[in-house]
From TrEMBL:
EC number: 4.2.1.59
PANTHER family: 3-HYDROXYACYL-[ACYL-CARRIER-PROTEIN] DEHYDRATASE (PTHR30272)
GO molecular function: (3R)-hydroxyacyl-[acyl-carrier-protein] dehydratase activity
Keywords: Cytoplasm, Lipid A biosynthesis, Lipid biosynthesis, Lipid metabolism, Lyase
GO term, biological process aspect, one: fatty acid biosynthetic process
Free-text function comment from the UniProt entry: Involved in unsaturated fatty acids biosynthesis. Catalyzes the dehydration of short chain beta-hydroxyacyl-ACPs and long chain saturated and unsaturated beta-hydroxyacyl-ACPs.
Protein name: 3-hydroxyacyl-[acyl-carrier-protein] dehydratase FabZ
Annotated gene: fabZ
Enzymatic class: lyase
Active site annotation, chain numbering: H49
Domain of life of the organism encoding this protein: Bacteria
Compartments in which it is found: Cytoplasm
Amino acid sequence: MSLDINQIMEIIPHRFPMLLIDRVEEVEPGKRVLGYKNVTINENFFQGHYPGYPVMPGVLIVEAMAQLGGTAILSMDEYKGKTPLFGGIKSAKFRKPVVPGDTLKLEVEIVKIKGPVIVGKGTATVEGKKAAEAELTFMLVDK
């Protein structure tokens, strides 16, 4: 199953300027998800993040992975309508700068579901090279 931007916004609550995924190519609800973020110079964070050397903040790369993971979780019938919040971020590593013109390929594998607590492993690559990785813990809450 693939999702366009409108379908993504039907699943996760994020909106501009915080919606950080553009397309979901594959989603296996509760298991894994693959999607993309097209990085453009028009992103509002580039105005103040290293002016003259625009680099996407690592924390926003992790947030993009989390939003993508949220689509895999909230695609499950039992979690529709919930809000996924960060419960933790472990082992975050940043391997290369992400700059305007890059397309982030994001992948999240859900490795553990225990009630409202879900753990996923995320990776972000650009042209086949790893840009970032992290273990993400989600806490599902009612709106």
